[in-house]
Amino acid sequence: MKRLTAAVLALVLLLAPALCVPAAAAGALPDEVDVFYQQLSPLARECFDRMNTGENLARFRSGEPIDLSVSGAYSTLADLQRQVNARQTAATQAYAAILQSYPEIFWTRGCEVGGSYTYGGGSYYMSLELTVLFETNWRDGRRDVIADEAAVRGKVQALAEEAAVQGGPWSQLAYVHDWLTNHNVYNSAATGADYLPWTPLAALTDLSQPVCEGYARAFKMLCDELGYPCLYVAGYTDGPHAWNMVQVAGKWYAVDVTYDDPGVPGVSAVVSGRESRKYFLVGEETLLDDYHVFSDNHIPTGEISEAISFTYPALAPEALDPNFSWGADWPGWGAPEQPEPDWPGPAVFADVDDTAYYAPAVKWAARQGVTNGTGTDAEGRALFSPDAAVTRGQAVTFLWRSRGEPEPATAQNPFADVQETDYFCKAVLWAVENGITNGTSPDSFSPGDPVTRGQMLTFLWRAMGRPGETEAFEGKAWNADAEAWAAEFGVADGTAQAYSAAADCPRGDVVYYLFHAGLLMAG
Hints:
Layout: H1 5-14, E1 18-20, H2 35-39, H3 42-51, H4 54-62, E2 66-67, H5 77-101, E3 108-120, E4 123-134, H6 136-139, H7 145-163, H8 169-182, H9 200-204, H10 212-226, E5 230-236, E6 240-248, E7 251-255, H11 294-297, E8 299-300, H12 326-329, H13 359-368, E9 375-376, E10 382-383, H14 392-402, H15 425-433, H16 453-463, H17 480-489, H18 507-522
Antiparallel strand pairs: 1-3, 2-4, 3-4, 5-6, 5-8, 6-7, 9-10
Helix pairs in contact: 3-5, 7-8, 7-10, 8-10, 13-18, 14-15, 16-17, 16-18
């Protein structure tokens, strides 16, 4: 078989290296319920199986290429090209899944897939290799992979031994959770120039300054060592974020170590006094405050890279009981046999896509009874009408409902256009009593007029207690303080249309504002 010079030159076009750089990773389930593996294509599973051997996993550490070649001849370059493209995509997906399975492989988050082909006997033959790309800290010699891996592994084993004698599952997992919150401080100054804060090395050694990814990867390693199935979850809160899901007795519970170790301005000590277990082993419907449950502000996206995203199993509705006991509540140690994964269902409303920026807010609004939608379509599916205008009467009603529908102290009504029988009457009276609105004139509220973005933010700002209010001065805009507050905390950030005080505020954005203002109240 002769390797042709022309063929090698053509390789530059055919097998240009495909880079995969995961933005975040997700943990792997045990083999018997390997959710991520099952979500791979058959070709990607083949690549995963090839990588997931002791010999090839060692190549993730050494940087030596992993052979992904397959036997077979191709009669034309076009046939070869199609196979190359398919295997490059499959290999990058399998690489992402490997990182989900092994958070201890923390010195790489990118790979290169390339190779060569030969021609002989009228056919083309392909060889393909995957090479992991080391992060700068380990590529430039500043850090040693072997030494750092050993340091992390030693700490994980020591902590797991200590945790294993603490009692039942809740106590064991609480031990490692609390160790992470009490020995670290969130790295608010982290930049992409230094990858260390994104690794478990930062959370498990005296570096002690991880970001959310570092916390979550470290917690997964500790759970793996203790024998609890654990996932690293890539998702969104008030921005891209990472947390964990842990399986106990066949049910999944959420843990957000980062949120349980909040940064305190001016405090650099690892123990700030703000550590908590608020986000420890909670369920989807676990109340975090008077208004929000866990799933309101933790939206799993599973976006691992441009090549692939994963779906996560459903959380248990409620938090794990701290008194849960394997002996009393479960016949044996370990996870039970699992049914097919219960994947999250579609959005509540047919016209609200799960990926829409306002989807979490709409879900929250429906759950809290803030709004029940606008009707149904021809097929009987519920509609929300996110682009429809919101009247002033509807706006104060949404706000009133989001606060639990407090009863107004008086029935005295100063507005001629608000009747006792109107659905928004109590909401308007409550809003006036609390200084949230004074109407459009002394005797008019104009409940049928569209609410503007400026008005909606001002209603919210006043309901929040007028934070940051400044003294009045000549020429000061009526909504200046509300806009400053909203800008500081990003209440209106992320909507499809840029903010304009005079523009009408559609239903999707009204609940979006309410939801994000509520998150500020939740802390």
